[in-house]
Write a structure and sequence with these properties.
Layout (H helix, E strand, L loop, with lengths): L5 H6 L10 H21 L1 H21 L18 H30 L2 H5 L6 H27 L8 H28 L6 H14 L7 H7 L1 H9 L1 H13 L5 H21 L6 H5 L4
Helix pairs in contact: 2-6, 3-4, 3-6, 4-6, 4-7, 4-8, 4-11, 6-7, 7-11, 7-12, 9-10, 11-12
Length: 287
């Protein structure tokens, strides 16, 4: 039995030396994704909760406001639509938002006691390890989003069939951005007990001050300040990117915004996990 640390086993040799084989990086990436997939399949409560939360909004909230909140013709829709059709993309975004926060929660645990603690001292650069962890979480969130779309079909939410393919790049991009935000938060947090409060402080303001539940033009009519907060909200652009893609449209503004936020969050996460200059170093928590 090999008693070497996990990170060194995955690397085989020093992965930072010139000419290091890309296969070592691919092996490490596959191992992290496989571990995340096994964790997801073994934790059935996580799977069920990821679906129950948006379905409760769809079945209860949308049904209650079906005859109260009408949605006028607004892009990408070409006709009047029921309220549940409007909020479905936002609920798919909710799945990715909560999954990003859950992945960052597991990152806090793994960094202190799990496999990531070992990987952090492996030959692999930290930016690669963070990216691999991010891709693993995004893969899980995409599966969950498609399961939600399949269940939502029974509630008369029928986007064009081509939309199910067109939405895949949007789900990847929005999942990466929201997951990178989770990595930034996990770099600040040292103890698991503090994470619940941070999650509530981030998730609910992002969700309710976005276009997930109501069109932005209605928000603008109610409050100009709230409208500009929604425009600056990364989750708003993630939802709009998913909404347009699901109906075979492309929202260039939201795509650029999501890419910009992704770059900022990922850079902040890399700096935060740098033991020499990041948040961990200032806390005295770097290895």
């Amino acid at each position: 039995m090999n008693d070497a640390p996990l990170g060194w086993q995955l690397a085989g040799q020093d992965a930072t030396t010139p000419g290091a084989a890309p296969a070592r990086y691919a092996r490490c990436l596959a191992g992290i994704i496989r571990r995340e997939a096994l964790r997801w399949t073994n934790q059935r409560g996580r799977f069920v909760s990821a679906l129950v939360r948006p379905l409760m909004w769809l079945v209860v909230f949308a049904a209650g406001f079906h005859f109260v909140l009408g949605v006028s013709i607004t892009p990408p829709y070409r006709t009047y639509i029921p309220y549940e059709v409007y909020i479905a993309p936002g609920l798919a975004g909710m799945i990715q938002l909560f999954n990003g926060m859950q992945s960052s929660l597991s990152m806090v645990y793994d960094r202190e006691m799990g496999s990531m603690r070992t990987l952090m001292v492996s030959p692999f650069p930290r930016w690669f390890l963070l990216t691999a962890k991010l891709l693993a979480g995004v893969a899980v969130s995409i599966v969950q989003a498609y399961i939600f779309f399949a269940v939502a079909w029974f509630w008369d939410i029928h986007p064009p069939w081509t939309g199910y393919l067109a939405v895949l790049p949007a789900l990847v991009l929005s999942g990466l951005m929201l997951g990178a935000l989770g990595l930034v938060l996990s770099s600040f947090i040292r103890q698991l007990e503090n994470f619940a409060g941070v999650m509530n402080f981030v998730i609910f303001p992002m969700f309710f001050t976005s276009g997930a539940l109501y069109p932005l033009w209605r928000m603008q009519q109610a409050s100009q300040t709230l409208y500009w907060l929604a425009q600056a909200n990364p989750f708003t652009h993630a939802v709009e990117l998913i909404r347009f893609a699901l109906y075979d449209r492309f929202n260039a503004v939201s795509a650029l915004a999501v890419c910009g936020y992704l770059a900022v969050f990922m850079a902040a996460a890399i700096v935060g996990y740098d033991p020499g200059r990041g948040f961990l170093a200032r806390r005295g928590g770097g290895e």
